[in-house]
Each structure stands twice: as structure tokens, then as C-alpha cells.
Amino acid sequence: MVRKLDHQLDEQIRYYRVRAPEYDAWAERDGAYDRGARNHGWLAEKARLAAALADFQPRGHVLEIAGGTGQWTQQLVKHADSLTVVDAAPEALEHNRRKLADDVERIQYHVTDFFDWDAPERYDVIFFSYWLSHVPPERFATFWERVAACLKPDGRVFLIDNIATTHAARLDPEIPGEDDVTVLRPAPDGNLYRVWKVLREPGDLELELRALGWSVEAYATGTYFMWAEGRRARQVLPA
Predict the structure, then answer these.
(1) CA 84: distance to chain centroid?
(2) Are strands 61-65 and 82-87 parallel, antiparallel or unpaired?
(3) For the residues of 3-69, what is the DSSP string, one character each?
(4) Within 10 Å of residue 140's Cβ, how many Cβ atoms?
(5) What is the DSSP letter of 114?
(6) Between 144 and 7, where is the model more confident?
(7) Cα separation of 63 and 136, whole Å?
(8) Domains of the chain
(9) What is the pLDDT of residues 121-136, one digit of tens each?
(10) What is the pLDDT of residues 141-199, one digit of tens each?
(11) How far apart are CA 117 and CA 73, in angstroms?
(12) Is 200 in contact with 208 (CB distance < 8 Å)?
């Protein structure tokens, strides 16, 4: 079972490696999201995410998990004293480096799967966007354990993702998978790749993380996205 899961995770990584060269163009061109989505506030909701991150003020030593081609790295670097970006797709990080060339002295890049990475330090802030929904349910608790291990005792987390009410095909062309937590996505090489897409409502995410010892508040932007911010719950010792 573990070997099968690892194989499927490798397939998800291959998908994003293949997608890297055209990912930014896809995200920005008019055809990336259907006209109905744009007319019903997709751009305004994306602006709300950027405003929420700016209000959060991700200062200090910041870690970005699955930084991809750098669409949110550009926002983080405005606030961070130093920034570490990890991603398992070297092609994506190459685009990230080029995009952030003027800030390269303050950024460390690591081509690695976060599940296998030994963090060299602890961080004030950990950020990830559209990544949590790609974490298999079997790895959800382990993922948050690793996040906690990378955070300073008073460190904070900020995440962005789609919400469960999203019509997923409007945001990313895909075919339902063999279960309710995976989808098949076409890639530029002509192949279909199996990826996880585990969508949650903000309240459900709060409850799941509370059970794992986190204090998190999650918010919907409207129809398409959510963000969440928080930290490890402080343990009250008996008197």
C-alpha cells in the first residue's frame, strides 16, 4: 500500500514537471478560466487572497512549500527577511528563479519533496498555496506533523486553496478519478495524470486541524477560494 501511494505521488510530481513550462501562461490567459468564472468575481476573489496575505504580514524567515513557478513567491518576498522555497519539480523552480531574479540573494531553493526534506532550520512562517488539496488523506496528519517540526514555537502558517463548492473543471480541466479524492488531468505531453484533489470547506478544515493540535481560522473568498491562518495551539499545563 505504501509503495502504491509513493508511486502515485511520483505521478503527481511528473504532472507538475510537465506542466511547468506553460503553467504561468495557462493561468493568465483568457482561456484559463471560463468566462462565467471571470464574470462572477474570480479576479476579485484572487485579489482578496493577496490582501489577506498582505494583512498577515509573513515576516522573518519564511518557508514556502510547493512554491511552483513563483506566483505567490513574488508576494512573500515583499515581506520576508529571508525566504526558502521547496518544490519537487525542478522545472517549476527554474521559472521561479527567473521570475525572482532581482531577489535571489534572499531566497534559497531546494528541489525536493517536502515529505523527504530535512529542514536546515525552523521558520517564523510557513506558506503553501493550492497544495493541501494535493496531499493524500493518508498523509494529511503526517504533513501537519512535518509542518509543526519546521516551525518555531511561536511560528505561524498561512495557506490558500480551492474550496469544496468549487466547480473544479472550471479551474483546471480534469476528469473524475476512480475515487472521490483524485482526478485525471491532461498535460501538454498528451498524457493523463492522476493527482489528488481533496477539497474542503473552511469550517471542516478548522475542525480537522483542531483535532491535530492546531488553532486555525479559515475564510472563504466567495465561490472559488479560501485562505487559512494560525499556529500550533498552546498547551495549558496543569497548575
Answers:
(1) 14
(2) parallel
(3) HHHHHHHHHHHHHHHHHHHHHHHHHHSGGGS-HHHHHTTHHHHHHHHHHHHHHH---SEEEEET-TT
(4) 15
(5) G
(6) 144
(7) 21
(8) 2-232 (3.40.50.150)
(9) 999 999 999 999 999 9
(10) 999 999 999 999 999 999 999 998 755 445 566 777 777 888 888 888 999 998 889 99
(11) 19
(12) yes
Element (H, E) at 161: strand 151-162
Model's pTM, two decimal places? 0.88
Count Cβ atoms below 10 Å from residue 168 Cβ, excluding itself. Answer: 16
Gyration radius of the chain's alpha carbons: 17
Task: Name the residue among 130, 119, 22, 5 with its Cα closest to residue 67.
Answer: 130
Q: CA end-to-end span of the chain, whole Å? A: 45
Whole-number Å distance between alpha carbons of 166 and 224: 5
Question: What CA–CA distance (Å, rounded) separates 157 from 185?
Answer: 29
Report residue 110 as a C-alpha cell.
531546494
Closest among 23, 28, 8 to 177, alpha carbons compared: 8
Residue with cell 510547493: 66
Query: CA–CA separation, 209 vs 180, rounded Å?
Result: 21
